[in-house]
Amino acid sequence: MQAPVWGLVRSAQMENPDRLALADVDGERPPFRELALLAASGESQMAVRLGAVHIPRLVEAGEAESGPEPFFDPEGTVLVTGGTGALGAEIARHLVSVHGVRHLVLAGRRGLETPGAPELRAELGELGAEVSVQACDVADREGLTALVESVPGDRPLRGVVHAAGALDDATVAALSGEQVDRVLRPKADAAWHLHELTRDLDLSAFVLFSSVAGILGGAGQGNYAAANAFLDALAQHRRARGLAAVSVAWGLWSDTGGMAGGLNTADLARVRRTGIRPLASDEGVALFDAALAARRAQVVAARLDRSALRAQAGSGALPLLMRGLVRIPVRQAVDTEESSTWTQRLAAMPEPERVEVLIDLVRSHVAGVLGHADTASIAVDRAFQESGFDSLTAVELRNRLGAAVGLRLPATVVFDYPTVTDLAHHLRSELLADEAEPAVPLAAELDRLEAAVSALAPADLERAGAVERLQALLRKCGEPQGAATGELDLESATHDEVFALIDDELGKA
Questions:
Q1: Contact present, 360 and 258 (Cβ < 8 Å)
Q2: How much is the pTM?
Q3: Alpha carbon 283 to chain centroid distance?
């Protein structure tokens, strides 16, 4: 039951590089020695069992020792949850056409009202299968119990494929309890109900559709990673008790739509940068069979891009968990050296060139995060939110810039400095903290204030009382010299005095 913490924290680690470590410990004694070892090793995760330290690594599964075996009884029934979804339908076709399954129950929240469900049933029927499409919320124990008990005794339930799931993405810091429940319910709750309702049945296959996000973590998908980590642990739990189980941690499928269908260009680019390529349907069903043949509780089924992994290894961005998959080159620099190098570079430049160089740096990373081929379309004065940034892309840009210049930047840096120019000025001030940056013209300050206000929703402005405070500031700007509220002559005031007034009225972001 504690397994979802692994997925959640792994996602937090992806969103906040080099800031968190995860230690899963047993026993009553605080493992001070082991924790010190974790801190000194540079590893980000470990488990302590009976005094032994275990570090996670992905390894090649290799070929199955035995040939193909019949994992599904043709005379029995196979239940596929999420069976009316894109991925569930693909697996249903494979079960019928390759594994010879003749009795299927496809469960989905809308049953035959799901677009394409009647056509799927007819298609499978033409292949020789008897298919029952049922409207069932598999996270509802009572409804799922009725569904399991409805399977006829002359073709008893022999296999389960749990492919149901949902997404409701947000960074860990922004996740609400409702979002966590919405994602864990159809995956974790439903899986536990399936386990309890079938553990006394003679099942030959109990297949859980997990995700690589539960193992690697998923930036912006902490709840989804937590749910899938639960599935991985449930498979271990069942296998330890002699029950059939395999949890298949899938990479992205390319042509089945479903949950992956909502990914935009930036999302797909981010997945590619992890070194995981989308699976075609024929590759996916082949890995489905390989996962069954591996006879392990937990496997990863993903298409790896070795060149992308090597590039990550060269830049020091490859997750430690994947180190065994590629040869790791020796890094020539560390983050502190990056920061020192950038400080030295900027210090040697004339002042006008400093911000220009940083603007080019920010633009290149903005283009990379958004999936653009070059920086031509990246405007230096356009608000990031107007360019399509959300909390996840903001975190990725923060991480990329922080790694590039060797700084630890706050998670809100993209919203605090909402344009390329603003962010470049901020990086300049952080890297050359000992030098006073030339005062930004008042017009530029007002532009930044306008961009920040424009990026907020009306409800956020109302909660902050921003409208009233801006109106009060305008009234003060129109008051004559010596007015009791400000004692400031705006016509003769210096920039610093005007900024002090603004800070006093609005507070710093």
A1: no
A2: 0.76
A3: 23
